[in-house]
Amino acid sequence: MADSPYDVSPETEKTESPSSLSILTNIITTPGTAFSDMRVDYPVALPLIGIIALNALVVVLLYANIDFGWFIEHMVEAQGGDISNAEKDQMRQGMEMMSPTSMGIFGAISVAIVMLVIFCAYSLYYVIVSSITNDGFQFKQWLSFVTWTSIPSLIGTLASMVVVFMSSNGQISPETLNPLSLNALFFDFNAMEGVGNILASTDISIFWSIALMTIGYAKWTESSIGKSLGIVLVPYVIYYGIRILML
Length: 247
Hints:
By secondary structure, the chain is mostly helical. It contains twelve helices and no strands.
């Protein structure tokens, strides 16, 4: 009987270093094999650079194709009654001082920095857990784990690129760019504020990533699926809890 690709039972670590492209294929098709392959030398470069670069590229493409005049008015009017007309004019003038190219470059750099910080923060969380459980894993191992299990997020990234290229008038709002967000798929709330903004920034692929993290953590640490899921969910509970409290 063939082993399930989602089998999380411990197995002997491999000694031959698999390619990152092989791990990329396996993380989608046979996650159990992918997590075994990672443990040979814990590669980081491909998923880390790939995810950050593609997300930064989406921002550059967005501002290269956007109707900039419409975008400025969209952002100003989105403030609604929160600011005075004078403040709106000041905001409008400030945005008009930047070109779409400069705003795209600035946005891409910001996205790259934020994503790197997020990956490092998640990795540090697992390092703290490892220091408590004494499983022996260090920062590089967990950075590899976090970046590879974030590969499903690229589905939303690629979908966003399609939205940019398919737009006929360039009137694309950044908060509704991803057609695979929970808000776009199921709720259709106002994506500029409140719960709608949280849902608009949450891609449905998050559930795939959580499943991969649970499988991978169980495999690496020989923990139960239930315990692994609980450990994986803690950062998400904290993050979304804080965002909800800030509403």
